[in-house]
Amino acid sequence: MNNKPLVSISFFSSLLLAAGLAQAQQQSSVTVYGLIDAALQASNGAAVAPGVSGNLYRLTSGGIQGSRYGFKGSEDLGGGLKAVFDLENQFDVSTGQNKSSALAFSRKADVGVVGDFGRLTLGRHTIISYDVQDELDPVQFANFNPLGNSGDAPVLGFANYQVVNARRDNSVKYSYSGGGLSAGLMYAFGEVAGNSSANSSLGGKLGYAGEGFKVLASVDQVKDAKGAKALGTTLGATYTLGDVTGFVGVVNIKNDFQSAGGFGQSNTVWWLGARYAVLPALALHLGYYDQKQSDTTTAAGLALPTANGKAQTLSFLADYTLSKRSDVYFSLQNSWLKDGMIAAMSPSGSRDQVASALLGIRHKF
Fold first, then answer.
1. What CA–CA distance (Å, rounded) separates 117 from 105?
2. Measuring CA to CA, which residue among 142, 141, 191 is closest to residue 168?
3. Please, which residues bridge with residue 360 across strands?
4. Where are the domains of the chain?
5. With 90 as the cut, is the pLDDT of residue 26 above it?
6. pLDDT band at 299 (very low <50, low <70, confident <90, very high)
């Protein structure tokens, strides 16, 4: 019996199957990514006892950025439309522990679609103001400076820059960028039966970029379970001329949350700074931040003037690139605290000047 036709059919079937698999691989992809950031830190503002502070030397995870890993992917749906997802978790490189014991993906978890219209996703997202401040901060939105609230050194007690929390669960987020224009909207469901506005949040942004400059503005409003509001606004700009980029911005948080010492607490921070590319591999960053906190109360609504005050912070960062994925950095920060201001850098409240230095390495994969 002649089996040649059967062999030919089997051969061509294998080719068609291989071609189909190859096409599927071209249309969809999954990427594992992340970064590991570790630094040696020295600070003179650590709490030793109530009202007492001292020097602290430690290995910190996330001197500039919180160490993380993630999975993201996309699938071509045709017609310029893609299905996308992004899952991202943060961990402490000094111990190997997750930063959150309750969340598998503490930084981000979303799924949605992308097309010419923009990006629309559902899940856990950073708020709009966080995204805008990330672009406007002169010192890489680093954890060690007042705006940097993205990783292992949150500025709790220094200022609720991110309107109580920088991320929102149960949220829908839309973003668009094209022709120099950028825009975004995000809504988070409070998921409280009988009260659709409780624990909900709403944010938006608008920006424009032209020849060497960028202007951005954002607004975020959050409600607690009792309907109290926290409103945050951000406005800023950048301008690049040659190897130098200048930054300027202002944030204001009006916080009526009872549980967060609100009842009208106001926090305003303005900043300016610059980035200078001294060499192709070396960039110097300098930022100055001026903060005023006022109208703070206790949870019972009583005035708490000892939690008010002012702070000025100067942050310096030298970042040297070793390769496409690795860099080393050195940073210095000094904060001057006035009128009883208690900052995360001085949790004991016993110092009016706090200094910190870091020497670290960061690897991205």
1. 27
2. 191
3. 39, 329
4. 32-364
5. no
6. low
Q: Which two tokens stand for residue 177?
A: 């960028």
**By percentage, how much of the chain surpasses pLDDT 90?**
55
Residue 111 · residue 84 · CB < 8 Å: yes
Residue among 104, 140, 94 nearest 275 (CA): 140
The pTM of this model reads 0.84
Q: Which residues contact 71 (CB under 8 A, 6 or more apart)?
A: 30, 31, 32, 33, 85, 86, 87, 88
Q: Amino acid identity, residue 273?
A: G
Cβ neighbours around 206 below 10 Å, total: 14
Cβ-count burial of 199 within 10 angstroms (0-12 exposed, 13-18 middle, 19+ buried)? buried
- Identify the burial level of 337 via C-beta atoms within 10 angstroms of its C-beta, where 0-12 means exposed, 13-18 middle and 19 or more buried: buried
pLDDT digits (tens, 9 = 90+) for 76-120: 999 999 999 999 999 999 999 998 888 999 999 999 999 999 999
pLDDT at 44 over 60: yes
Instruction: Please say whether the beta carbons of 298 and 334 come within 8 A.
Output: no
**In this predicted model, what pLDDT tens digit does every residue of 330-345 receive, in sequence order?**
999 888 888 766 555 4
Q: 10 Å Cβ neighbour count for 204?
A: 17
Query: Do the Cβ atoms of 204 and 218 come closer than 8 Å?
Result: yes
The mean pLDDT of 231-239, rounded to a whole number, is 94
Average pLDDT value for the chain: 84
The Cα 181–Cα 214 span in angstroms is 10
* Best CA proximity match to 184, nearest among 192, 193, 175: 175
CA–CA dist 121, 20 (Å, integer): 29
Pick the CATH number of 32-364 from 1.20.1260.10, 1.10.10.410, 3.40.605.10, 2.40.160.10: 2.40.160.10
What the block records as the tokens of 10 is 């089997």
Please give the average per-residue pLDDT across 231-260, as a whole number.
89
